[in-house]
């Protein structure tokens, strides 16, 4: 068992029958009254972010979380199938557990977060940026660059992103998987 003096960013704990990760915390010692710890935590099962205040010295139950690297194989009606590159063990996850499934391409490497004691997968994170090829987009109109105009484009995974007018079919672009936005065109 640990207590509030052991809080640090990234600490995972079992609290209120759920797993939470501490995003931010602040020890507060007011001039009048007992000390307390103000926290901002994210649920590892639902992704919901909550703000909570703990009294100083409250006991908590820390949990060991492991991150393992897996390779994406394919997806079907069971879910998304991944393979551990160390021992070739395969696992599958539901679409809701993946942060940006629309940008997942066969052979991509991802990080899967596991509850170490229960060997239960919690979430799957793609890299912050992925490089994909444009498979379809309308041609841009020459001279129409006075504004920050964008157009829809379909990438090789089937996802649709908004890109600048100068992007054409066959171009490779970098996409931010956290919000699905266009970052830059890659040189061939």
Nutshell version of this structure?
With 188 residues, this protein is an all-beta fold. The chain has no helices and 16 strands.
- Class by alpha and beta content: mainly beta
Number of β-strand runs = 16
Roughly what is the average pLDDT, rounded to an integer? 90
CATH architecture label name of the largest domain: Roll
CATH topology annotation of the largest domain: SH3 type barrels
What is the number of helical segments per DSSP (H or I, 4+ residues)?
Answer: 0
Q: Report the CATH C-level class of the largest domain.
A: Mainly Beta
Largest sheet: 6 strands, antiparallel
Strand content: over 45%
| Helical amount | under 10%
Low confidence ranges: none
Major beta sheet, strand line-up = 1-6-2-3-4-5
Q: How large is the radius of gyration?
A: 22 Å
Shape: flat
End-to-end distance: 54 Å
In total, how many domains does the architecture comprise?
Answer: 3
Describe this entry's structure for a reader:
By secondary structure, the chain is mainly β. The chain has strands at residues 2-3, 12-15, 18-28, 36-43, 49-55, 59-62, 65-76, 79-84, 90-93, 109-115, 120-125, 129-137, 150-155, 160-164, 172-176, 181-185. The strands form 3 sheets. The chain has a 6-stranded antiparallel sheet with strand order 1-6-2-3-4-5, with no helix packed on it. A 5-stranded antiparallel sheet has the order 9-8-7-10-11, with no helix packed on it. Strands 14-13-12-15-16 form a 5-stranded antiparallel sheet, with no helix packed on it. The termini are far apart. The model has no long low-confidence stretch (mean pLDDT 90).
